[in-house]
Amino acid sequence: MSSLSGKQGPRYRHLAGEAEPYETIAVEKLTPIIGAEISGVDLARLVDDGARSNRQMDEIHRALAENLVIFFRDQQITPAQHLAFGRKFGELHVHPAAPNEGDPALMRIYADKDSPRANGEGWHSDVSCDLEPPMGSILHIKQCPPHGGDTLFANMYAAYEALSDRMKAYLDGLTALHDGEQVYRGLYANYGEADRPSYPRAEHPILRTHPVTGRKALFVNRGFTRFIVGIPRDESDAVLGYLYQHAENPLFQCRFRWSENAIAFWDNRCTQHRAMWDYWPHTRSGTRVTVKGERPV
């Protein structure tokens, strides 16, 4: 069982207070509310090492819970080690549409001068259309452009907490439909990837409770959310439009500038992200491993 599972959650409930110092890693925050760079760890060794690695892995779990997205630079890992690191956090998720790099759980990330689009250009939470959306994603960028190509991450705890009490009360108990059909059909044709007969769709609460921290987070996004269930469509469009704009407030964000062999690991349950495609005609490429999650509540 992953130590980030819901059953293990109470040991992270102290996060609202002053955090204990780390012993085996260094953690440098990008902003006070989201994002941290982790140093003092070699992930290639971590996946195989013994007792010290177990302690280091526990502190990486904690750093993710505290900072929502964590970054590692200069990590020389093989595809097998990338997959093994992901499995330290749980069973791996297979993307319902994207091409892979030889293993179904190793998603290909690639854009160059001939690409019609780049992965993750709009704000979203990965595959939120699944009945059990991913717990988190681990992206390893091996080739990055000389300038541009940053990724933005936003804290959905903060987005929820900044809502008015009246809006929180209105949204409490409402669900929204997340649908992959409009996103995925034809999306990977340039890679020669054939469309599937159908793509996932699911209803999820607009306000979800994180299974580890117990905190509430806003859980709608422009990429996959289609409408709020049980209210008129014009009302749904207006409310969702407000929530999207609210969630994308720069005050909730951090921005990561990639370097070759850097890794980003984000918690999909309480973040959204957006990859900037501002580096044409240069190439950005890598692989992503995604960890399975649970049905939102």
- What is the assembly state of the chains in this entry? single chain
Give the CATH topology: Double-stranded beta-helix
- What's the architecture, going by CATH? 4-Layer Sandwich
Helix-strand pattern: EEHHEHEEEEHHEHEEEEHEEEE
Measured by DSSP, the beta-strand proportion falls in 25-35%
Distance between the terminal alpha carbons, to the nearest Å?
20 Å
Q: How many separate domains?
A: 1
The CATH superfamily bears the name Clavaminate synthase-like
Backbone structural class: alpha+beta
Number of helices: 7
Provide the residue-averaged pLDDT.
Answer: 91
Radius of gyration: 19 Å
Task: Assign an overall shape.
Answer: globular
**Counted beta strands:** 16
Describe what this molecule looks like in 3D:
- Helices cover 21% and strands 26% of the residues.
- Strand 1 (26-29) and strand 2 (36-39) form a beta hairpin.
- The protein starts with 25 loop residues before the first strand and ends in a 6-residue tail after the last strand.
- The strands form four sheets. Strands 1, 2, 3, 4, 5, 6, 14 and 16 form an eight-stranded mixed beta sheet that branches. The chain has a three-stranded antiparallel beta sheet with strand order 13-7-15.
- The chain contains seven helices and 16 strands.
- It has one domain: Double-stranded beta-helix (4-Layer Sandwich), CATH 3.60.130.
- The chain is an alpha+beta fold and 297 residues long.
- Mean pLDDT is 91; it is low at 1-17.
